[in-house]
């Protein structure tokens, strides 16, 4: 299959995903099935992986901040209109913490897009998905909450399986360090969400993520000069597809987290690197190896164990921060992007 045909197939997959999400949302409203929440979480993971794939394929030479700016502008417009329509306050009760959350997300997203442009797709996605490790490490210090050793072990096993899938070389690379920095910022942002979920509406938290990125991204884009402008239709499509896949991922994540059990939903999102591998094949012709297939089995086994533990009963006091965040957001009838 030629590159153009692969890209067209991926665009078709994105549109099919949007239709599937809409169908699942309608069915879920009538049935209230947790299974529909898990389906939406899988769609969310695939959409966020597609966002990285579109950025790497269609915007390989575009300044990172120009990608962040276009995504921020369009997503801010969508979420502000949605918040106004539902009568949800944009300023919130704690604007300082909301701004901090937004800036942390801006930094994490900037590092992520930069690493996507400079690393193999699978490596970049894997590094971003390692943020639960930093959440677990910082939670006792920031929130004074204990991270359960069993859950942490299973998350480590899952990430080990993901490492097999993307087969990183282990060499110390500056681009990889940027990806690790982005993952750390995502982890800190997740901790601020844990705090904000107690006082703010989920949509207010969501709005501040792209909103806070506009000013710094605009300044950096202006400094980049003419190189930040789209040079052809392909780059315009790249900006639009990055935003569309991000919106699809956010919508699916929000509804999925509100319907599925918190641990199940959190675990399923770790399938993102698996989709990174699949998009790597679809867009760049990367053929999965035996090591990648073994990694897939390890990831699925760890995720099944996490889901089984959550199904045993309510979230214990020693639950991970990710689980407690999911429970907070689920009880407030919404969700937010970490």
How would you explain this protein's 3D organization?
It is globular, with a radius of gyration of 19 Å. The longest helix has 29 residues, at 3-31. The chain has helices at 3-31, 34-58, 64-86, 95-118, 121-128, 131-142, 149-166, 174-196, 202-224, 233-259, 262-268, 272-284, 290-311, 321-331. It is mainly alpha-helical and 338 residues long. It contains 14 helices and no strands.
Task: Draw up the topology in text.
Layout: H1 3-31, H2 34-58, H3 64-86, H4 95-118, H5 121-128, H6 131-142, H7 149-166, H8 174-196, H9 202-224, H10 233-259, H11 262-268, H12 272-284, H13 290-311, H14 321-331
Kindly name the structural category.
Answer: mainly alpha
Uncertain runs are 13-26, 313-338
How do the helices and strands follow one another from N- to C-terminus? HHHHHHHHHHHHHH
> Radius of gyration in whole Å, from Cα?
19 Å
Main beta sheet, described?
Answer: none
Shape designation: globular
Mean pLDDT: 77
Count the DSSP helices. Answer: 14
**Number of β-strand runs:** 0
Strand content: under 5%
Helix content: over 70%
Straight-line N-to-C gap: 35 Å
């Amino acid at each position: 299959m030629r590159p153009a045909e692969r890209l067209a197939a991926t665009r078709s997959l994105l549109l099919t995903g949007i239709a599937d999400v809409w169908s699942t949302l309608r069915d879920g409203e009538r049935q209230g099935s947790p299974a529909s929440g898990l389906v939406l979480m899988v769609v969310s993971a695939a959409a966020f992986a597609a966002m990285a794939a579109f950025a790497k394929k269609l915007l390989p030479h575009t300044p990172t901040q120009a990608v962040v700016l276009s995504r921020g502008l369009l997503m801010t417009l969508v979420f502000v209109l949605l918040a106004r329509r539902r009568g949800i306050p944009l300023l919130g009760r704690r604007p300082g913490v909301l701004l901090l959350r937004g800036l942390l997300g801006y930094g994490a997203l900037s590092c992520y897009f930069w690493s996507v442009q400079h690393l193999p797709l699978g490596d970049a996605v894997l590094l971003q998905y390692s943020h639960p490790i930093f959440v677990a490490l910082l939670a006792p210090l920031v929130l004074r909450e204990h991270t359960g050793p069993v859950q942490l072990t299973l998350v480590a096993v899952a990430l080990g399986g993901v490492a097999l899938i993307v087969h990183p070389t282990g060499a110390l690379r500056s681009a990889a360090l940027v990806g690790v920095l982005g993952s750390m910022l995502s982890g800190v942002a997740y901790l601020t969400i844990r705090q904000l979920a107690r006082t703010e509406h989920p949509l207010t938290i969501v709005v501040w993520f792209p909103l806070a990125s506009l000013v710094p991204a605009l300044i950096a884009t202006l400094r980049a000069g003419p190189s930040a402008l789209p040079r052809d239709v392909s780059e315009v499509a790249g900006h639009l597809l990055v935003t569309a896949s991000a919106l699809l991922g956010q919508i699916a994540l929000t509804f999925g987290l509100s319907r599925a059990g918190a641990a199940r939903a959190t675990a399923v999102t770790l399938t993102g690197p698996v989709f990174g591998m699949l998009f790597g094949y679809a867009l760049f012709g990367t053929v999965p190896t035996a090591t990648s297939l073994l990694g897939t089995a390890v990831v699925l086994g760890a995720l099944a164990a996490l889901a089984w533990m959550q199904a045993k009963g309510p979230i214990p006091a020693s639950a991970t921060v990710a689980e407690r965040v999911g429970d907070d957001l689920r009880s407030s009838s919404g969700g937010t992007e970490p």
